[in-house]
TrEMBL record:
Boundaries of every 4-O-methyl-glucuronoyl methylesterase-like domain copy: 172-320
InterPro entries referenced in this protein's UniProt entry, alphabetically: AB_hydrolase_fold (IPR029058), GCE-like_dom (IPR054579)
Species of the source: Paenibacillus violae
Keywords: Hydrolase, Serine esterase, Signal
Keyword Hydrolase part of the UniProt annotation: yes
Database matches in Pfam families: GCE_fung
Protein name: Acetylxylan esterase
Cited Gene3D superfamilies: alpha/beta hydrolase
Length: 368
């Protein structure tokens, strides 16, 4: 582990050799530099922020669960030179006098989040568990932002809406991950307008591919109070240098559309990247961060995910928050947490389960 650590880019040293000594240093030069490195070498540059054309349409609103929960569907619409885009948002909000905190889930291929009945309580999206604990359960599907396949040359989804009409692309043009992350910020734009939601206490949760995208969303958009990455693995929470299981070559060959073209230049050359994933996680500090792994998820590599979290912690301590009281991987099904950071290793395979969700909510109850 010590040798692995030594091979990594320094958290507190910028490319011109300047060292971070204070929170002000971190915020004024190192944090912005890391964001730019991720834009340049990994995710690409998003060409727009919040579009002026952004509109919210209430499609449906009804009471469910004997009147204890409001179920709403909101269409988030926006237009660009290439036409109109749409995010279909589902919200289940406990009815209370006060605003409630929320969990947003970024669903992926094979996961249905629209027209889910509260009682269904699927393992990956346990709406009933979430509302019963007093949180709003908010979901969107990442494929509303960009369908998860390669062969369309970035002509659909938000790329089709906002990119240049001739579809020319630079090596740092935004890929699918960046589009998915952009979408969660638009979801946050809506939540800020909903009088039932406490927008200061919103968590974003992603699993596997959307776990990677959520980390980027949380890095860029400081309105997310808690960022949760579940089994995000390669190019998510896991340190790339010395990683086992999936490597850059695998992820870039298997998913040509996820990252920008510059990232592909580092296949089998992880050591030459100016970043590694502790730097991505560090961008979430001092906000709350939770990383989850699964014991049989060798492709994601739990040890490297845990290491990513450990090595991001110096930014939390710079801010005066405690670090985890161990640097050893905790036993299975035994979550560990500090004031702002949490981790668990669930027993079992690559998945997101009710147990994972229970741990995320326990962490949010304790710290958010
Ligand atoms: C593939 C991919 C992983 C990804 C996973 C998923 O296994 O290699 O990087 O996390 O799909 O999203 O389910």
């Amino acid at each position: 582990m010590e040798e692995r650590k030594r091979s990594l880019p320094e958290l507190f040293e910028s490319s011109n050799g300047r060292r971070v000594k204070t929170v002000e240093d971190w915020r004024s030069f190192r944090r912005p530099e890391i964001i730019e490195l991720y834009r340049e070498y990994v995710y690409g540059r998003e060409p727009v922020g919040r579009p002026d054309s952004l509109r919210f349409h209430v499609v449906m609103e009804r009471l469910v669960m004997q009147g204890t929960v409001v179920h709403k569907q909101i269409d988030i619409k926006f237009t660009g030179l290439g036409g109109e885009g749409l995010i279909r948002l589902q919200l289940y909000i406990p009815v209370t006098e006060s605003r409630v905190p929320a969990f947003i889930y970024a669903a992926i291929k094979g996961q249905r989040v629209s027209e889910v009945e509260v009682e269904e309580c699927s393992a990956y999206w346990p709406v009933k568990d979430i509302v019963s604990r007093g949180y709003a359960a908010v979901s969107y599907h990442v494929e509303d932002l960009d369908p998860d396949f390669y062969d369309e040359g970035y002509q659909n989804g938000v790329h089709g809406v906002f990119d240049s009409p001739d579809h020319s692309r630079s090596p740092d043009a935004w890929g699918a991950m960046s589009a998915w992350a952009w979408g969660s910020s638009r979801v946050m734009d809506y939540l800020e307008t909903d009088s039932r939601i406490d927008s200061e206490r919103v968590a974003i949760v992603g699993y596997s591919r959307s776990g990677k995208a959520c980390l980027w969303a949380g890095a860029l958009d400081e309105r997310f109070a808690l960022v949760v990455s579940n089994d995000s693995g390669c190019s998510g929470a896991a340190i790339s240098r010395g990683k086992t299981g999936e490597r850059l070559l695998n992820i870039n060959r298997g998913n040509l559309h996820w990252f920008n073209d510059n990232y592909k230049k580092f296949n089998e050359r992880e050591d030459e990247l100016p970043i590694d994933q502790h730097l991505l996680l560090s961008l979430i500090a001092p906000r709350h961060l939770y990383v989850a792994s699964a014991s049989e998820d060798n492709w994601a590599d739990p040890e490297s995910e845990f290491l990513g979290l450990l090595l991001a912690q110096p930014v939390y301590t710079l801010y005066g928050f405690s670090a985890l009281d161990t640097d050893q991987m905790p036993p299975m099904n035994s979550p560990v947490c500090s004031e702002r950071v949490g981790y668990h290793l669930r027993e079992g395979k690559h998945d997101i389960t009710r147990y994972d969700w229970k741990c995320f909510m326990d962490f949010a109850d304790r710290t958010l």
